[in-house]
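note to self: dont lose this again. the chain is below, predicted strucutre after it. 206 aa total, dont forget to put it in the shared folder this time
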Amino acid sequence: MDTNDLIGIENQIDYKFKNRDLLQQAFVRRSYSVENGGANNEVLEFIGDKALDFVVVQLLTEEYGYMASECDDFNRDECNEFYSECDEGELTEIKSKLVRRKNLAERIDMLGFADFLIMGKSDINGHAEEKDAVKEDLFEAIIGAVVLDCNWNMKILKQVIEQMIIIFNFCRSGHYENMEFYHYIMWKNTILHIGIWGIMCVVSGR
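---
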């Protein structure tokens, strides 16, 4: 990888590295480091996996959750509790589909990042760059590199992950294997919003 390759990747994930060696390391497979020495992307992958889970949960909480005080009809005498348009099981299913291997691999394909993998002979001969598991590892390793480079800056991590996974387009586009589940979520949200609107009309006398 040369400097132009690294800059191109930075532009696609909307983050400029202070230490571009970390970004390059994210693309180094263990097979290459075994043959040539140096570090590989396995620990970055571990870090990125955990960071991805945390940020996705935070983003889903922001997308589907709200405090009671955010409602127009909130009474200050009431408890200011947290509510969610989706229950625990629904949020778990959405999260699992967002971070599943197939989805992360597809995003790597769309970004064209697998072409930059730095591999040893065994991976090259086995066409590792075509395997979803390898693409998933790469996705997580890039996140891990960002984590270390930005020193766990959550604002930056959210920005990069939203850019890489297009999380809300995914949530709202019906990108589900189970379309019945997607339509149920949309129906539930519509009913909730109609209910809130109806309460507001009653309170305002409309």
